[in-house]
Design a protein that fits this description.
It is built from two helices and four strands. The chain is of the alpha+beta class.
Length: 85
C-alpha cells in the first residue's frame, strides 16, 4: 500500500457543523499525524489544519466528507513523495 503526506486546510463558518466535523476526524484518527485549530473570533470562524499520512483514497475521502458538511470548506495539499507502507 502506498501512502502520501498531505495537509487538509479546513475553514468552519457554521458552528453547528463542529460536532459532526469532530466525529469525522475521529473516524480517520489512525491516519492523522497532527491537528492545529485556530479560533478567529473577529470573523466568527475556525481555521483548522490536519496533517495526514494515508493512501490517496483515504485522504480524498476524508477531505470530501469534511467539505460536504454545511458551512465547512476543505482543500488538500499533497506531498510529492510516495511511501510504501
Amino acid at each position: 500500500m502506498e501512502t502520501r503526506v498531505a495537509v487538509i486546510g479546513i475553514i468552519v463558518e457554521d458552528a453547528d457543523s463542529v460536532e459532526r466535523l469532530n466525529e469525522t476526524l475521529h473516524e480517520y484518527s489512525p491516519y492523522i499525524v497532527g491537528r492545529m485549530g485556530i479560533p478567529y473570533r473577529e470573523r466568527d470562524i475556525n481555521i483548522i489544519s490536519i496533517a495526514v499520512d494515508a493512501p490517496e483514497e483515504i485522504i480524498s475521502a476524508l477531505a470530501g466528507k469534511v467539505g460536504n458538511l454545511p458551512g465547512v470548506s476543505a482543500k488538500t495539499a499533497y506531498s510529492n513523495i510516495v511511501n510504501k507502507a
